Amino acid sequence: MAEILDLQDHRRRLCAGKGYANWSRRFAESFDEKTTIADLSDPTLGVLIRGDEEASLCLHDFVMGVMGLGQGLRFHFLDNTMKMSVMDLTFFLLDQLRFEAMKRLGWLEDHPGLHVPMVDLVSFFRDTSPGEIYDTPTLARSHPGFEEYEKTIGGDRGAYVRRLIPDAIKEFLKRYAPDA
C-alpha cells in the first residue's frame, strides 16, 4: 500500500513540476504539489486574475503541464476536445483565483477550494462531480452590498458575487499588485 501512495505522490510532484515550470521563471517564486491558491503571493495573483493574454498563457501552461499536454504555447495545436477541456479548467481556475483575490479584499468568506492544492484542483475538476469546491463563495457580512446580497434568492447569489469581479480586480490590483 505504501508503494501505491508513493507512486501517487511521485505523480503529483511530476505533474506540479510540469505545471509550474514556466511559473517559477515568470514569477521568481517556488511552487510545488502542495501549493494552493491561498499560498500565491499578491503580485502573482494580480497577474493571474486579469484574464488577459498573459494570464491565459500562464493558466494554460499550468493546466496543460499538469495534464501532460506540454506548454501553453501548444494550446492552439490541441484537438477541439482537448482545447475545451483545457479551457474549462482554465476558467474554473480563473474563478478560484478571483475568489481568492476577493477574499483577500475582505469581500468574500473563506472557501474550501482555496485550500486545495492547485494540482489536485485540476484532477478533481476532471475526475469528480461538482461539490462545494465548485460553489461560489459567500459574500462577507462586512461587504457594503451584503444586505442586498442576503435578499437575493439563493440561486442568484452566485451571479451577485460574479458581478463584483470586475471591481474586485481593479481594487486588488490597485491595493496589492500595482505593477501586475
Describe the structure in your own words.
By secondary structure, the chain is mostly helical. The chain has one domain (2-176). Helices cover 62% and strands 0% of the residues. The radius of gyration is 17 Å and the shape is globular. The model has no long low-confidence stretch (mean pLDDT 90).
Sum this structure up briefly.
With 180 residues, this protein is mainly alpha-helical. It is 62% helix and 0% strand. The protein is globular, with a radius of gyration of 17 Å.
Work out the helix count: 8
Shape: globular
Structural class: mainly alpha
Q: How many E-type strands?
A: 0
| Main sheet record | none
- Regions with little confidence, pLDDT below 50 for 5+ residues: none
Question: Beta fraction of the residues?
Answer: under 5%
Helix content: 55-70%
Gyration radius, in Å? 17 Å
Number of domains: 1
Order of helices and strands: HHHHHHHH
The average pLDDT score comes to 90
Distance between the termini: 45 Å
Question: Which features does this protein show?
Answer:
single chain; 180 residues; mainly alpha; 8 helices; globular
Helices and strands in order, then pairings?
Blueprint: H1 2-27, H2 42-49, H3 53-67, H4 80-104, H5 118-127, H6 146-151, H7 154-163, H8 165-176
